[in-house]
Amino acid sequence: MSNVQRIQHCSHWGAYTLLVQDGRIVGVEPFAHDPAPSPIIHSVPEWANPKRRILRPMVRKGWLEKREHSDRRQRGTDKFIPVSWDEATTLVADEIRRVAGTHGNAAIFAGSYGWTNAGRLHHASSLLKRMLNLVGGFTRHVDTYSIAAGPVILRHTLGSSDACDGRANTLDTIAEHTDTLVVFGAMSPRTAQTEAGGIGVHRLETYLRKIAARGVRIIHVSPLKDDLPDWVGAEWWPIRPNTDTALMLGLAGEILHAGRHAQDFLARCTSGADQLLNYLNGSSDGIRKNAAWAAEICGLDAEAIRQLARRLVDTRSMLTVSWSLQRAHHGEQPFWAALGLASVIGQIGLPGGGVGYGYGSLGGVGSPFNLGKSPAISQLTRPIDSFIPVARISDMLLNPGATFTYEGETRTYPDTRLVYWAGGNPYHHHQDLNRLSEAWTRPETIIVQDPMFTATAQRADIVLPATTSIERNDLAGNRRSDFIIAMKQAIKPVGDSLPDFEIFDRIAAKLGVADRFNEGRDEMGWVRHLYDQSRADAAERLAFEMPDFDTFWRDGYARCPVRADHTFLADFRADPAAHALNTESGRIVLGSETLARLGYADCPAHPAWVEPAEWLGNRHDVGDLHMISHQPAGRLHSQIETGIASASTKRNGREQARLHPDDAAARGIRDGQTIRIWNARGACLATADVTDSVRPGVLVLPTGAWFTPRDGMGIEAAGNPNVLTLDIGTSQFGQGCSAHTCLVRAEPHIADQRDAFEEYQERLVALATA
Ligand SMILES: Nc1nc2c(c(=O)[nH]1)N[C@H]1C(S)=C(S)[C@@H](COP(=O)(O)OP(=O)(O)OC[C@H]3O[C@@H](n4cnc5c(=O)[nH]c(N)nc54)[C@H](O)[C@@H]3O)O[C@H]1N2
Ligand SMILES: Nc1nc2c(c(=O)[nH]1)N[C@H]1C(S)=C(S)[C@@H](COP(=O)(O)OP(=O)(O)OC[C@H]3O[C@@H](n4cnc5c(=O)[nH]c(N)nc54)[C@H](O)[C@@H]3O)O[C@H]1N2
Ligand SMILES: [Mo]
User: Do 139 and 159 share a domain, yes or no?
Assistant: First the structure.
């Protein structure tokens, strides 16, 4: 092809080259250094499709007429009126001033959770926070939907969240030293496709092949068989969802009853171990935690559990726990119980031994990690300290002034008048969307900034169209990636959209703080500056030479200083006093004084089995299925839902729900049929995928289908599982989201076979044709 330009770019799913001819993308090629590129790169051209985009700034008709007195129930129904950028930015700046002046800055909620794009300059929520910190601040969020209960409990029991942030044992050491690997959840190329801030090299499969080639015995504990690739040769233990804590405690109990527990390690390196051991041997509650006890709860074989317990202490053993396990009611417990089990085994700090969290949950977890400074634009300092735990958004909007607890503190929800969301999609990510829809009627004003006409943007008062990353210049990088990658502009902005930095710079100008917002730099000035900061840090702190900016920009990538071959807590194990952890005892906490003082029934003072609110245990009704709403294979969350990689995972224009042949037969469901999935919170449609790769009693429906409610019928047409999920905190302590705790029913749906995209698109046309 003649006159085809080759343009280096990167997204959360990896680096790639865009082939551009006459201003159009005509091809996508993977990054030459990537052994396992993600198919999602081929969805990128869909970003340029104007049908999916917000083409100009728009204001909801009712809001334009009545401002804070508008009928907020018309969100999502009222027509939008197009306005100029000058009008739009004036409306936004005036509204920020009004709310801050009348109600105080805490009445502005700008937590704005979301993955936005991989660029470190045009990182929408960071820029929003930077701008608002210059005018008095805002209410923010803490933790993430990905991990909240996990890091909260690990900070108290292990002194930091490093072990779940990609700084536990690196996978190269596991491939080399581990004999027995127990995988709780997944270690899947499906989720390892993505990494927040982009990834140069997808390495999970390379490590898994090494692990398999060395004949490591792998026990895979998950309700879904393909959470580990077939070729790894694991033994599948199809556990009942949300019961892993019982299995971990049962294994620890077996080891204790056999007298094989690591007494020396427990004494030297842990505190409060007696509380855990007394619970395991039943002296604290009269119930012995052993294989038989665990088997009953988990729906697994008791003898297999007994044998595994022996093997864990006879061989070098490593436990891995996916982030998904803590995205469930009492999600603190599986993370803490795994730490307890690893302590009882006593191999923490030895090569290939111990416990780690989130391997493969993101592509960089377990890979060599970046020791340098990852490029990031500063959010500046916070003038106020108002926050909510990230997943308590509906609670906050519905209950202004009410109290909530977090990490042992009691705080108050602010009275939110203005919500500004940039680069996130709560109608994708939040649980119980019908409850969110009620909460969404509470704020006086909602501003959404996004390239796509998302379900959230449809329900805003002011929508600001951002460009996608391929319409501007930026750079990608993060703490778990060994490359910084150039993200070069490939095409012109679609419609009247503007780069996020430009949008906030214009609003900052109206608020009189542009100088401090932009510090005198334009887009390329900032890209250069952020790169130079990382380069200088690598040189000064680590004596690592990165190429100069012009070389980086010409080549399209630069390598960062990384650490491979890392054994977590090796120093601490060797000398616990000299390398004390940042916990109440300086050691691993297995019985917590802090939690004992708090006395929370839903987060006890030692790792414990506490029944989740919904599960397939004794109290469920026959006919219930436990729904796992895991990450979608063909896209990142709701991003590029209509792209080729995402569309190829659908059937009959809908998301597919996997269920076991026995469950399908019992309900008269045939493979490929449209089914209705429902519970007391909502209902959605999906296409049945009948397969014995799921445990009986479990239904797997990926997240990310664009929220397409049918007016008046209470049914969602595209297969968005969050109309069904439960919106409660993991516990009073961690307050994470409990997405994976959810019972549903399913039945054949005798109705039209309409493509859900078409229904979605009709709504967009109806809203935007003013
Ligand atoms: N049931 C259930 N729910 C879940 C989960 C689950 O396991 N089960 N998982 C949870 C998890 S782990 C997460 S992280 C969340 C993810 O939730 P989100 O991060 O909110 O999901 P995304 O779809 O990635 O939303 C990103 C938004 O940013 C927009 N965007 C992309 N690029 C740009 C840009 O350059 N500028 C601007 N302004 N916007 C941009 C996209 O169009 C999209 O609307 O979902 C959570 N929800
Ligand atoms: N392709 C793609 N990759 C992604 C994302 C995406 O949207 N698309 N999102 C990214 C993000 S933001 C995050 S945070 C990570 C999340 O990474 P994870 O949390 O690891 O991913 P999930 O897909 O939610 O869950 C992994 C598996 O855990 C299993 N599981 C669920 N509940 C239980 C349980 O109670 N016990 C056991 N033993 N297993 C259980 C399910 O079978 C599920 O398939 O994924 C990232 N990777
Ligand atoms: Mo996440």
Answer: no
